[in-house]
Specification:
The protein has 326 residues and is α/β, with parallel strands linked by helices. It is built from eleven helices and twelve strands. 21% of the residues are buried.
Amino acid sequence: RNHTEVWSYTDELAEIIDETLGKGGNVVIPSFAVGRTQELLYFIREIKDQKLVKSTPNFPVYIDSPLAKAATTVFCGDLHGYPFAALKGYYDLIRERERTVEPRRELTDEQALELVKDGTHMFTFPNLNLVESSEESKMLNMDSTPKVIISASGMCDAGRIRHHLKHNLWRANSAVVFVGFQSPGTLGRRLLDGVEKVKLFGEEIAVKAKIVNFQGLSSHADRDHLLAWIKGFQAPKPQHVFVVHGDREVAPYFAQSVAALGFQTHAPQYTEAYDLIADKVLEVGYLPERKARTAAGKTSSAYERLVAVGNLLMESIKRSKGRDNK
């Protein structure tokens, strides 16, 4: 599929932040540390500059990911105290060159160029806080001040984001905003699919928070971009193209689109074995059936059978009352 062409989420994100912070809740954003987090900071800087959040104009924003903090430092062009000291000399060389050479326009858009010329940092703004230690991270959930928390991992399967979800999913006044693709089987996908409760750190947490999904905000290439990329191979072309990334029902159809360009292509399925040297399938895979979701209030046939067996067992237990222990 192709992505929705959305160049800015400033207005929509501002509306969610305004509504949530106005109710005294937190906005929790699971985000990939490199690229996506900085994109969000760009939008939030615009939100603050344009004063789009009325309930809490100077709302605090916390980047709770050591990797995101390091990446943002590089994006902002400030390597003071940065652990990779070897980059410092290279950065100084680039800075000296930029004094006399116009910035490379292919690396940014016209708006970003204007910001740089004005001396504005694209990813920094008042009340932006970069969290480093795990102790600081835990304190965020002890603080009742309404805030925006951006944390990894982007699909909620690991990292500090799971702690923030534990403390905010049950709050009806909070919101969880997804800004990237959520792979099937991940906690992020389950939340988007409308699960009513999740287990985090051994505790069952009810999902009462507002769940928001920005579908168009993806760093993955879409259908047209992938086809344009593979068309770039002239000579020699790949001998065989395997489509291994993407939803399992969609991958075989995309493989047909690639094959139409003159490539030998297919989408290997689960358990398939392929001999790369002989260029042939050794064992055919299969497409596992997805478990059908049970509608709220309805019971599955397996559950009904389990209840029937349980009733039989209870009847047997009652009949044995007063009998010998054996």
